[in-house]
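Dear Dr. L.,

I hope this message finds you well. Following up on our conversation about the binding site, I have prepared a predicted three-dimensional model of the protein together with S-adenosylmethionine. For your records, I am including the exact sequence and ligand specification that went into the calculation, followed by the structure tokens. Please feel free to forward this to your student if that is useful.
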Amino acid sequence: MDGGGNDGVQPKGWPGQLWLEGRTIVHLLDEQPRPSHMPRGPAKRTGPGFLNPAMAPARTRSVMLLNDALQHSWLVKNEKSIRVLDALCATGVRIRRWRNEIPSQHQSRLRISANDLDAFALQWARESHRTHPPSQPIEHEPEDDRYGKTSTQVFENGLDFRQMDARMAMLETGYQWIDLDPFGSPVQFLDAALQGLSRTGVLEITATDTAALTGSSASSQARRYGAKGIVDVYAHDDAVRLLLATVATSAARLDKSMTPLLALFDGHHVRVSCLIQTSREKASAIGDSIGWRVRENDVPYRFVRHPTPEQVRRASGPLWTGPLWDKDIAERMTEEKALELCQPSSDEMDSMRLSGLTWTEEDIEYSARELRRSVRYIADAADLMSREHLLLNLDSLPKWAGVGGAPKLETLIGGLIEAGYAAARLPDLEPLLVTDAPFDTVLEHVRSTSKSSK
Ligand SMILES: C[S@@+](CC[C@H](N)C(=O)[O-])C[C@H]1O[C@@H](n2cnc3c(N)ncnc32)[C@H](O)[C@@H]1O
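The resulting structure of the complex is given below.
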């Protein structure tokens, strides 16, 4: 099906108001309030064409991850091209950011398709792309689809827009990269996404149904994810691990394995990026990485593959218990890299102001801070998050250590590193410590810091 062509007619309400996300100008509907910088939590939805500003950091990381795959050739070798689909693209901010912000030397290797069912959102996406084309024009030859039929792709300056049910769009050709960003739960799209990927591909998923994933809505969690939760300080980590377990088990049914690249609880949603590979052998092994988090008395928790009925009462699961990130990739997700890729130069700012963007120096400063925040703490925690580690919430340590108050997280991390352990802060609104030190050692550090601060 055609991609909701404009035929020269502008969408109702066009041009709306101009805003900048990363280095990309976006048009917001007039009825959408001007976003605050660094918004957190779910935004109030204002209908089709609405852009959720709280998802900007996730889109920044998406630009960085796709760039990393091209720059470091870990997805396709020999400078081959990557077929990418944003299956639920709405007004097309993510695809336009991929096109604008990934450096020009990689652009000819990207074949980007963008799909949404909503005609208005697609029209808005196309008009935005037409009004603010990428600095380097791109022409692609359409490729035949996976059924050997002549392609229906029509690239408009490097973007191919499609208007169909996402489940059909994902199955049209073998994509090496699929982004799935639905309203609420991604489960209804998961099988089609896994089947739509080529033998090796990246699947990036956003899930905003955090009540189900954390277990605060126990019935939705049981129905949708076949799991049981405990809503305590581990609920966010459990939500991430539950989504990964769901992807891994769905993939294994199709003889595919799942390896997490980056997985985060980000304020009001879970975002996971996974490498999916066709391999019966690896798919059979995923059982080794699925289990339950049992809350204990001697340590905060233990991962157990087959809990006893008594343990199940104080456990959440089944969850992904393996590593959550890829070390090398996450180590490259630095604040410097975010700014290098996604921060506009002063010349670009001048030209965007000429296009009608009314941004002050303060806006520019805030947006640079938001870019840094998108990846803050990731590189430092990369090593620990890609292997076995202990996760602790600073606020629950005084109770375990029998002291009046918690030390500063930075002091505790410094002390553990000085003692020869690895320790880092996790990106989360909560003060989360990740370490390979034994739990007793962490408690000793908490006690000694508490004594020395008296
Ligand atoms: C959360 S929005 C996507 C936001 C977008 N990825 C972004 O970053 O701005 C979800 C989109 O899914 C679209 N949608 C819902 N069900 C769909 C389906 N079955 N097939 C295709 N699109 C669908 C909606 O029209 C909406 O634009």
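In brief: The first helix runs from residue 56 to 71.

With kind regards,
A. P.
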